[in-house]
Amino acid sequence: MTSGKSTIGPILANVLGMEFFDLDKEIEKEEDQAIIDIFDQKGETYFRETEWRVLKRLSEKSDIVISLGGGTIIQDNNFMLLKSTGKIIYLKVSPEILYMRLKNKINRPLFKDLVMGDRPKEDFIGRINEILNKRSNYYEQADLIIEPEEQPFGLIVDKLARNILKLFNEKN
Fold this sequence. Notes:
The chain is mainly alpha-helical and 172 residues long. It is 62% helix and 8% strand. The protein is globular, with a radius of gyration of 16 Å.
């Protein structure tokens, strides 16, 4: 969530000569509805079922980069599909930076109540840490972990591209 996937992903795909897909945007297209509205009107279970269906369809393609929603990977079926069909990259960003990026976003279902309630920073950081702790077991199993806040943007894409090509060359 707000780690830079949707910003870095298209650039990375371009550098690698691949096609880029943002999973959340693909879900919104299929449902003709914003993610936050899907959560509000149909619930998380419905959203996760739709997410699985769209991810499965995308995973049948080759030479693509997919930006995932932050919770996608913690669904066991998604995780196993991702591990079996591609490489997982984790853009690891500190809770403090995530807070700065999330504090005014009303379109994030897991933080909408905090933003709308004008809650203190500590509440946000607490929620971020809670979510990261629940997800860390999956995130830490990524094939490549990058900490983007510690590097200039151009170097992140360059490093990712080199490491991804290395990962795929090891596979073949």
